UniProtKB/TrEMBL annotation:
Its main location: cytoplasm. It is found in: Cytoplasm. Homooctamer; tetramer of dimers. Its EC number is 2.6.99.2. It comes from the Bacteria. Keywords: Cytoplasm, Pyridoxine biosynthesis, Transferase. The gene is pdxJ. Pathway: Cofactor biosynthesis; pyridoxine 5'-phosphate biosynthesis; pyridoxine 5'-phosphate from D-erythrose 4-phosphate: step 5/5. PANTHER family: PYRIDOXINE 5'-PHOSPHATE SYNTHASE. GO terms for cellular component: cytosol. This is Pyridoxine 5'-phosphate synthase. The active site is at 42 (proton acceptor), 69 (proton acceptor), 213 (proton donor). 3-amino-2-oxopropyl phosphate binds at residues 6, 17, 214, 235-236.
């Protein structure tokens, strides 16, 4: 199972003071040494963290394959085509969102996404579509000619956090998930089932299957046990752990966890 390390949150820390430290570029060699298989960045339209200068330098200097997450905005797609990362992952974006909230609406935006996928592939860039675990959406993804889908694990991660962390007792408690534990357990089982079934369906449709969003050192194990998932993209929890153990250790601990989980299943 491959590990894509999303380094957005290194740039989040830099942007907190709007200076040049920490520099996401320094993470590239360290991530490789720690066993990462890919670098993932999200060049958002509002440039709240990774900016154009970061993306250009990372595309030029990364010793690992680069997976650039981006919206289907024309200006952004032009930039991605010019930088030629190994892969582009198309994600929905809303300016007001704290982080990505849902998957790409491939059905309503099919024609536009088809056009963007074709343009990226004409520039020899592989394409992944970041989607909610849904058969109809997966079928539409296969029709776009995309190489991969990345299953959005946010719903699963949120329910897991409400059940197995102190999230409920913090100001960030997720209001629509303040439910009895029995209800949350049922929802967690459904979220896992949706991810498992979607991974199987996507694989049978000829798509490579990745997953990501909100994965951490506790909730990742159940996702890594899904055999059809070949890659996880993880960022926030690795950067958070880096504060305590250092970035190299945080990456290698996640990679080792995935390796152990896969070898035991
Ligand atoms: C698509 C996804 O789940 C993340 O990779 C994305 O990068 C989230 O956006 P932020 O990194 O801006 O939170
Ligand atoms: N696509 C998911 C990703 O790149 C990282 O998401 P997160 O771990 O920062 O939530």
């Amino acid at each position: 199972m491959k590990l894509g390390v999303n380094i957005d949150h290194i740039a989040v820390l830099r942007e907190a003071r709007r200076i040049n430290d920490p520099d996401p570029i320094e993470a590239l060699g360290v991530a490789k040494r720690a066993g990462a298989d890919q670098i993932t960045i999200h060049l958002r339209e509002d440039r709240r963290h990774i900016n154009d200068n970061d993306a250009k330098k990372i595309a030029q200097l990364s010793p690992l394959p680069l997976n650039m997450e981006c919206s289907i905005d024309e200006e952004i797609i032009e930039i991605v085509c010019a930088l030629k990362p190994h892969r582009a992952t198309l994600v929905p974006e809303k300016r007001e969102e704290v982080t990505t909230e849902g998957g790409l609406d491939v059905i309503s935006n099919f024609d536009k996404i088809l056009q963007v996928v074709e343009k990226l592939k004409n520039h020899e860039i592989d394409v992944s579509l970041f989607i909610d675990p849904d058969f109809e959406i997966i079928a539409a993804c296969a029709d776009t000619g995309a190489d991969m889908v990345e299953l959005h694990t946010g719903e699963y991660a949120n329910i897991y956090a409400m059940l197995y962390s102190n999230l409920r007792s913090t100001p960030h408690s997720i209001k629509n998930l303040e439910l009895p534990r029995s209800e949350l357990q049922e929802r967690l089982a459904k979220a896992i089932g949706d991810l498992e079934n979607s991974a199987i369906y996507a694989s049978k449709a000829g798509l490579l299957v990745a997953a990501g969003h909100g994965l951490n050192y506790q909730n990742v194990i159940r996702i890594a046990q899904i055999p059809q998932i070949v890659e996880l993209n993880i960022g926030q929890s690795i950067i958070a752990r880096s504060i305590w153990v250092g970035f190299e250790q945080a990456v290698s601990q996640m990679k080792e966890l995935l390796r152990e989980t896969r070898n035991c299943n």
